[in-house]
Specification:
Belongs to the cyt1/cyt2 endotoxin family. The mean pLDDT is 88. With 216 residues, this protein is of the alpha+beta class. Strands 1, 2, 3, 4, 5, 6 and 7 form a seven-stranded mixed β-sheet that branches. Helices cover 30% and strands 34% of the residues.
Length: 216
Amino acid sequence: MSFDQIVIFYNEDIENLLMENASPTSKYNSIFSIPKENAKQAIEMSQIFVDCFDSAGENKLKFNLEKAKVAIQKRKSMTLTHYMDKSVVNQHGKISVAVDQVIGLVKDALKIALTPGDQLYQTFAKTITDGFTNVKKLADDNYIVWEHSSEHKTTYEYHALFSIANKTTGAFMCVIPMALTITVDISKSKLFFITVQDVHNYSLEVKALEVVEALQ
């Protein structure tokens, strides 16, 4: 397998590639960093996680890590390698620092090879940053679930999914569904104008898992 031609696919690219396999109701901001010939496999693997959300009650539409673990069993060729449920509480600092904290947590817990400056790292960092600074668009695209909003606090959950196949993953495809719950000390309306340089009190909860499957 040659990894000389890694392509970054975003949601609109994925839907254009294989419309018949892409779910129109997907709640994930999906990003693939893979050779183009492996796109079909990446989509099939990611579809396993389409329904891994609570369906009722006050947590409706929130990512359910246990459901995701069970869903993996539907595809016998996939293996769960790592999962995480970690929090960062009551931090005061720039949003850019919060992004770095999320990346650090995910790297450590899921053992993802992310090197600052390379294409995968930049794509990963942008996707996480969007969860703080591009909230209006993500909400319009159904990648965000609102939990609480008041004059001084807003809580929401952001869903993203990464599919990776490169020299580091070798003969395997790696898929990572993720839910990032963010609580920040401003109203929803002010949240729409936040930047990476803004300073706020925030807390974070990251739920994610990693599955792998041999490249087809």
